[in-house]
Amino acid sequence: MSEQQLTIEETLKNKIFKESQLWLVSYLGGPLGASYLLAHNFKIFGEHKKAKITWTISIIFTIFWSIFLMFMPETVMEKIPDLLIPLIHSGAYYGIMHHYQSKKINDYINAGGIFQGWGKTILISLIGCAILLFIILVMGNVYDLYMFFSK
Questions:
Q1: What beta strand segments (E) does the chain contain?
Q2: Cα 123 to Cα 6, 17, 24, 118, 127, distances in angstroms
Q3: Other CB atoms closer than 10 Å to residue 11's CB: what's the count?
Q4: How far is 22 from 121, CA to CA, in rounded Å?
Q5: What string of DSSP letters covers 78-94?
Q6: 109 Cβ contact list (under 8 Å, min separation 6)
Q7: Whole-angstrom Cα distance, residue 83 to residue 62?
Q8: Mean pLDDT score, 137-144
Q9: Residue 74 and residue 53: Cα distance in Å, rounded?
Q10: What's residue 22's pLDDT?
Q11: Taking the complete model, does pTM exceed 0.90, yes or no?
Q12: Is 134 helix (H, G, I), strand (E, B) or coil?
C-alpha cells in the first residue's frame, strides 16, 4: 500500500460536518459555532490555511458585529424581526460552505467518509450559544460603564 493511499484511508476515518448541520449550529451557536464546523472540514480536507483564515475572520466579525449591535439605536432594533439576524448569518455561512466545501463533501462521502453525529452538532451549538451569551453580557456591562462615565 502506498503512502498516499494510507493517508487517504486515515483521512476517511475522520468525520466531517454536512450543510444541514451547519444551518443548525450557525443559527443556534452563532458565528463561532459555524466557524468551528467550517474550520474542522477544512482541516479534514487538508486546507489548514483556510481553517486559520476562517477562525480569524469569524473572531473579527463576531467582535465588530457585537459592537455594531450594541450601539444600534433601540428604535432600529425594535423594527428588525428577532429571527432575521440569525437567518442572515446562517445563510451566509451556508453559502460559504456550499461554495468552498460542497464538492469536497460529496467526494469525501462517495470515497467512504462519514458525517459527524447530531449529538456533537448539538453540543457545538450549545457551546457557541453559551459563548454568545457571555459576549452579550460582557458587552452589556461595557455599555453600562460607558453610559455611566459619559454623563
A1: 15-16, 114-115
A2: 31, 13, 11, 9, 6
A3: 15
A4: 8
A5: HHS-TTHHHHHHHHHHH
A6: 115
A7: 18
A8: 77
A9: 33
A10: 96
A11: no
A12: helix
